[in-house]
Amino acid sequence: MMKIKSLGLTNIKKIFLFVVLAALFSLSAFAIEVTNPALGSSSANRGDTVSTTFTIKNTDPANNLTITQITSTADSKYNITFTTSTPITIQPNSSTTVTIQGDIPKDLDAVNSNYEEAAMNIGTLTVSGTLGGSSVSKTATITMQAENNLRIKKFRLRTETSSKSMDDGDTFKNVRPGDEFTYEAEIENRYSNSEDVEFDTVYISVESENSDVDVDEEDDEIDSLGADEEDTVSGSITVEEEADKDATITVTIHGTDENGALHGQKIEFRLDVNRLTHDLKIRKIAVSPKTTDNCKHNEIVITPYIKNMGKRNERKVYIEVTVDDLNYQEKKQFPYELEKDDSGTLNFIIPIDSDTEAQVYIVDVKTYFDEIIESNSDRTQFTITQCETQPAQQQTQQQQTQQQTQQQTQPTQQQQQTQPPQTTSETENSETTAIAQAAPRKKELEENSLYIMILTALSLLVLVVIIAIIIYTVRSGNKKY
Prior knowledge:
By secondary structure, the chain is α+β, with helices and mostly antiparallel strands. The chain is built from 4 helices and 28 strands. The strands form 6 sheets. It has a 5-stranded mixed sheet, covered by helices on one side.
């Protein structure tokens, strides 16, 4: 009692008034309920006028609720109106529906900050009225949604042996440490040609939350994706050999259209990474040399590189190399225990002889644990080419044949040398020689003709002298007689 007196009458009145006001406020708060109106949908077009209803409920068991006013704080570009006129009287424990209408603007985002399709908060509405002589009000959130026109049409994940189109929530099973994937993401602009809205830039991100899974080209982009167009980006995903748990891959695309609206999509799928109990993986197969000829005895060295990717150490590890076309097959045991995540090699020597056929040879490599249980397999190849030089025996025979041929042709060659055919040059030489030989003969003939002429002249002269002497003698004799 003393404590109450010490508080003072004034303070007691203040406390009482506060309690009464709180009770009245609580009464009014619980006496009216308003649902949140959601305008539009994931398929609504921008520029459309959309409408919906929301509910106002009077939870008071005894008094009527009179709604006197409904207002909105949404921006004028949404053109929010309420088609139900006020005042509205709602009986105790009863409710009524009110229609709200608005326009979807061109710049309304289709996705939230996580690039998930969602309705956007555009403002609030307030319902005001009276209940049991007291003023009451209630506020609700107005949301609006429009279609998302930037989508992942297909995300395909491939390995060397399998392929799968991944959707949100999917799992790629039986993934092994060391596996490598390639992916292709088909991105589409779902705006129609008549709408003719394009994205200046589309951003693509592929990420892994597991540090043992590496994504090449984590971030990519597409420049200018027009209405009703598609484009593809690609990359690779590598599961590290040390990986021993599942990985979640998150693919995100987003872009802002030419009207300023944000669109995009995010999908997540899981890589089910599973280590086998026994897994002797062939990491690579070295071949030395890759190409050789069959001129002489030679060797091809096959060196498989293997790694124990299983869950435990392996005490009995075997490698088998087979070349069917050479009837070659050999299996060797590893000389030591191959511990988990350890690697090792063995060499296999394949003989090549001069009678080995020139061709491409396929090499099959298999790994075994406990000698007979196969773990993994792979293959490679090498090439044997035809020898370009002949063996010595064939060369000797060829030389002997050439010598015999030369001996058989020697008489003919000598005969040809005795009476060689006249070539153009030889004919010219012969003509030159003939002309040279004819020159002194001509000169000799000329000299003989001159001699004959002189001799003839002398003979005529002698004849004339003789005739003159005879005539003179005859005349002298006649004179005597």
